[in-house]
Design brief:
By secondary structure, the chain is α+β, with helices and mostly antiparallel strands. The protein has 8 helices and 11 strands.
Length: about 220
């Protein structure tokens, strides 16, 4: 099996369970703008969301559903994160334009630069060996990986993903970078899931495959 066939198969299985959600052009552009607001480091108010939605001819009802199912919010209802990017502290450090942010899981860090059209620096500690892993990703490719033996664990949920809680519990808690395949195998040895092991570049390619339509929608008309 070639790498492309493997990535296409994983992408097909993800689409079957609703990852990522199917967004039209207006919703894709809304996602882009809110992601960029999150990268500024301050919570995004619902009023700001409605203002952005109005500019894109999206109704409050349409946006309300998106916010409820796809975003991480504080007690005031302000958006702190969505689509893998967050201001809340997680294991995966994600720096963009000098702003220190975080990602829900390892794979998120590989497609977010493509959505944001920005280069990002990623730092995470291997769960098994406690080694530091550093990766730099541009919108077009993976620029650097340290150590070069680093890999990514991927699990494919067996149920349709309908909300952020399911993303965390079923997916993100099992999708990590490891400094080596051995570390990955050792960490998962007594756990529920038997993950796929893919390279960092393959993880990037998977993001390109799955988010390609959203990226095209974002740039439509520009």
């Amino acid at each position: 099996m070639t790498k492309k066939i493997l990535i296409d198969e994983i992408a097909s299985k993800f689409r079957m369970i609703g990852m990522p959600p199917d967004l039209d052009e207006r919703a894709s552009k809304f996602l882009e703008v809110i992601l960029k607001e999150v990268t500024k480091g301050s919570p995004v108010t619902q009023e700001k969301c409605y203002e952005i939605a109005a500019e894109l001819n999206l109704s409050k009802e349409e946006i309300r559903s998106f916010i409820e199912t796809s975003t991480e919010r504080d007690k005031q209802g302000r958006i702190l994160g969505l689509f893998g990017l967050t201001q809340n502290e997680y294991a995966h450090k994600f720096e963009i334009d000098g702003e220190k942010l975080y990602a829900f899981c390892g794979w998120d860090t590989l497609f977010l630069p493509q959505l944001l059209m920005k280069t990002a620096k990623v730092e995470v500690v291997d769960h098994q060996s406690k080694e530091t892993i550093k990766i730099e990703i541009s919108p077009e490719k993976v620029l650097s990986i340290f150590p070069p033996t680093a890999v990514l664990s991927i699990v494919i949920p067996e149920v349709e993903i309908e909300n952020l809680a399911q993303v965390y519990g079923i997916f993100c808690s099992n999708v990590h970078f490891f400094a080596s395949e051995k570390n990955l195998r050792d960490w998962f040895e007594h756990r529920e899931y038997n993950p796929l092991v893919i390279s960092i570049e393959e993880g990037f390619a998977l993001g390109t495959s799955l988010f390609g339509n959203i990226i095209e929608n974002i740039h439509a008309g520009r």
